[in-house]
Design brief:
Layout (H helix, E strand, L loop, with lengths): L15 H14 L8 H10 L6 H8 L5 H11 L6 H9 L8 E3 H10 L6 H8 L8 E3 H11 L4
Helix pairs in contact: 1-4, 2-3, 5-8, 6-7
C-alpha cells in the first residue's frame, strides 16, 4: 500500500514538491531544526513509509539529524516499484462495493496486521493524512495524491 519504498541504489533528486512535503513533515517533529532522538526520527520515517530502526538510522544519517540529512535520506529511498494501477488493484481487494472506496477500519486492519506490521501510532500517522468521508476513503484519489507527492504523477 505504501508508495514510497526503500531500495538500495542510486539516490534520486527530490522534486521541489517533494522537498516542500518532506520539509513540512520534518518541521512538524523538529526542535531547533533537528530531530536529535533517533526513536522520534524513526517514527517520522515510518509514518512516511520507511521502516528503519534507530540503529539503521544512526548508520545512514551519521550525525546529520537535521533537515538536510533527512532530505538526503529520503532521496536515497525514493523509487517507483509499483504502478498506480498495481496499487489500485491491491486496494480493490478491500472494496466490497466496487465503488472505489475502502473502509478506514479495513485500512487500519491492513496496516496493523499485514506486510510490515505497524504499531497503533504508526497506523494513526498514516491514516491522519488520508481524507475520509463517512468512514471511507477514495483510494483512487489517495493513490494519485501520493503519486504526485512522490514525483510519479
Amino acid at each position: 500500500m505504501v508508495l514510497v519504498l526503500a531500495v538500495v541504489g542510486h539516490p534520486q533528486s527530490l522534486s521541489e514538491d517533494q522537498k516542500a512535503f518532506y520539509t513540512a513533515e520534518f518541521n512538524k517533529c523538529a526542535k531547533s531544526g533537528m530531530i536529535s532522538n533517533l526513536n522520534d526520527f524513526a517514527k517520522l520515517t515510518r509514518a512516511l513509509g520507511q521502516n528503519y530502526t534507530p540503529g539503521e538510522l544512526q548508520t545512514k544519517l551519521g550525525g546529520s539529524k537535521n533537515l538536510q540529512g533527512f532530505l538526503d535520506l529520503m532521496s536515497q529511498t525514493l523509487v517507483h516499484e509499483d504502478t498506480n494501477q498495481d496499487v489500485i488493484e491491491a486496494f480493490k481487494v478491500y472494496d466490497k462495493d466496487g465503488n472505489g472506496l475502502m473502509d478506514m477500519v479495513a485500512l487500519r486492519f491492513v496496516l496493523l496486521n499485514q506486510g510490515d506490521k505497524l504499531d497503533n501510532e504508526q497506523a494513526e500517522a498514516i491514516m491522519s493524512r488520508i481524507s475520509s468521508h463517512n468512514g471511507s476513503f477514495n483510494y483512487h484519489s489517495m493513490v494519485e495524491q501520493y503519486s504526485k507527492m512522490s514525483g510519479r504523477g
